[in-house]
Amino acid sequence: MSEDDVATRKMQFLFALRSKGVTDQRVLEAMEKIDRGAFIKGLFAERAYEDMPLPIACGQTISQPSVVGLMTQALNVRPRDKVLEVGTGSGYQAAILSLLARRVYTVDRHKRLVMEARDIFAAMDLSNITAISSDGSFGLPDQAPFDRIIVTAAAEDPPPPLLAQLKVGGIMVLPVGQSDHVQSLIRVTRTEDGFEYDELRPVRFVPLIEGLGRDG
Ligand code: SAH
Question: What does UniProt list as catalytic (predicted)?
């Protein structure tokens, strides 16, 4: 691909985001800065600027860019926020969050994905991300509570430890539903007295699986 082709594709990429409802200027700027191409290796690299999910290592997927944008927008991240992401995958979503938040913790059950994402974060000089291999359904008790939590794998219900690790006034965005059915993207807001739930849109994510991957 020539440099001109790359520039054209990136422009189309941003246009597609806007036309699918990603309108928050800070989110669009972050997505303009973080090159999705850096997170996709091999055969699918040349499709990095298309609005579709793509396969990554360990049988997982990097999410569709417009879904990344809509989830990030729904999370309403503020500059002083401490954010937890469950499901590092390629690291793309975490990289975008790192431009919007003070600190990002991201966890994945596959150690290989965590190691590869760490290398990309270092190469991009994103020094406010900590990537850890662990079972994210338990959250990250040592670093809790969080202002914002985003889950990029689908559970049947919001995992109770994640609800417990959300600050009052905090927001969590996650897909819920059975893994082989269409799931719903929901936003949970913690109030003084409990939790409020908004249903945002249908989505399809890989399942949230308990325990560590076989690669650690
Ligand atoms: N946010 C990613 C896409 C994630 S795909 C990106 O931007 O590329 C979903 C990820 O969730 C997979 O990498 C999978 O390994 C991870 N996952 C599934 N169950 C998990 C669990 N219990 N704890 C941590 N990670 C989990």
Answer: 63
Ligand 1 test: best mutation among 54, 96, 152, 214, most atoms within 8 Å of CB? Answer: 152
Tokens of 171: 């927001």
Please say if the pLDDT value at position 167 is more than 70.
Answer: yes
Nearest-10 crossing angle of helices 92-100, 111-123 = 50
> How much distance in Å is there from the Cα of 176 to the middle of ligand 1?
14
Task: Count the residues in the chain.
Answer: 216
pLDDT (tens digit per residue) in 11-48: 999 999 999 999 999 999 999 999 999 999 988 998 99
Q: Residue 216 above 70 pLDDT?
A: no
Instruction: Give the distance (Å) from ligand 1 centre to CA of residue 106.
Output: 9
* Ligand 1 centroid from CA 86, angstroms: 6
What kind of fold does domain 3-203 have according to CATH?
Rossmann fold (3.40.50)
Each residue's pLDDT tens digit, 194-210: 999 999 999 999 999 98
**Cα angle 43, 48, 54; round to 5:** 65
Quick check: is 63 catalytic? yes
